[in-house]
Amino acid sequence: MTTAQGTSERRPPVQGHCDPAFAAVRDVFERNFAEGREVGAAVAVYAGGRKVVDLWGGLADRRTGREWREDTPAFGFSCTKALTAAAALLLAERGAFEWDAPVTGWWPGFGVHGKEAATNEHLFTHQVGLPAFARPVTAEEAADAEARAAELAAQEPEWKSGTAHGYHALTYGWLAGHLVRHHAGMPAGEFVKKEFAPDLDLWIGAPDEVIERAARLTNVRGVRDEDGPRAVDDDARIDRLARSYLDAGSRMNRSVNNPSPGKGGFNNPVVLRAGWPSAGMLATARAFGAFYANLLAGRYVRPETLREGVRTRVRGEDLTLTVDSAFGLGFMRPSMTFFTPEAGRDSAFGHTGAGGALGLADLDADLAFAYLPNRMGDQLTGDLRAYRLAEAAYAAL
């Protein structure tokens, strides 16, 4: 086919397994490729603990023509936050800490500039008031998790902890991730691998051989995304969101762009090796979906622990994103920033990732869903590629 840049690309057909009952998921996935909305991608669905969809296709690297294979891992951006949250749920279940206890109980240096009353819950619900670093941070500096945590601990918050919430797009990793590191005695990514993914193609902080075969993120200009439902129907809000995203001084811009991933963006091996606990996951969709399926099945934490963990703690206008968001303990709940098909708007949880990635689970439907593309979508309030796939999965139940 011909791209907007005028070069010919051969996109292999969709491969993998799809239960006939979920054929609509495959139809949507194939249509996304046929209509030019994908370069490469993978999607997996588990229903009742059974893998019913495991599909992949396209190009892992459009520069070289390398095909997306069964074991091609892809970058999940902020989908990573759910893994870090699950790690904390497990540690709390084991008695390592209490959610309503002060952060200073285990991190004395955090209690400066009015942050003395901040609780562990505030770290995971984006309420602690540290949505961005106060200075530019490089990818190399960001790899030193202990130093970056100490830097944030010394900062003055942008609002008093517990009085409001605002998305901590990247700093979440050095706050929530530091709690996991402290109580687990190892980096969050290492703990996640040990406890959740010893046999899964899923990493937060990947070895070089995994990075070498990972899908390469790409921007394809001139692609017209599908028209359809929008998470935000108010055009004035969308304009405000767009202006905030482009304003270098806005809280949103400062939150999502600092630390800088450096040369190559989030393809930079320095970032992928470091495994930021906010945005550092490399995984196959099959493995990422299995994580959510195992979480639903009680293989990681007790069902009551999970239900308490995904219970909505904050909802309403997000001081960083400028639109409504909702969070449990690190997990997104359905809102303008976690755009969920109607069937899941009471019981779904998970996390989105920049560029269109989505991990979702549904407690009532016993559904786990994972979608990882390498073509960066540009919709500010929800990617319809993921939405249509999840919608088809729900409809097949």
From TrEMBL:
Keywords: Hydrolase. SUPFAM superfamilies: beta-lactamase/transpeptidase-like (SSF56601). Residues 29-393 form the Beta-lactamase-related domain. The keyword Ribosomal protein does not apply. The keyword Hydrolase applies. GO terms for molecular function: hydrolase activity. It comes from the Bacteria. This is Class A beta-lactamase-related serine hydrolase.
